[in-house]
Amino acid sequence: MRFIDREEVSRRLTYERCIPIVRQAMITFSSGESKQLLRSIIPLSEGRLFGIMPGAMGAHAPFGAKLISVFRENFDRGIQSHQGLILLFDPETGAPVCVVHAGEVTAIRTASASAVATDVLARKDARRLVLLGYGEQATSHARAIQTIRDLESIVVWGRSPERAHAFAERLQAELAVPVTTAASVQEAVAKGDIVCTVTSASEPILKGEWVRPGTHLNVVGSSHAGPAEVDNDLVVRSRFIADSREGVLHQGAEFLRAKAAGLVGDEHIIGEIGQVLAGEVEGRRSADEITVYKSLGHVVQDLASAWALYSQSH
Ligand code: NDP
Question: Is 170 in the pocket of ligand 1 (CB under 6 A)?
Answer without folding.
Answer: no
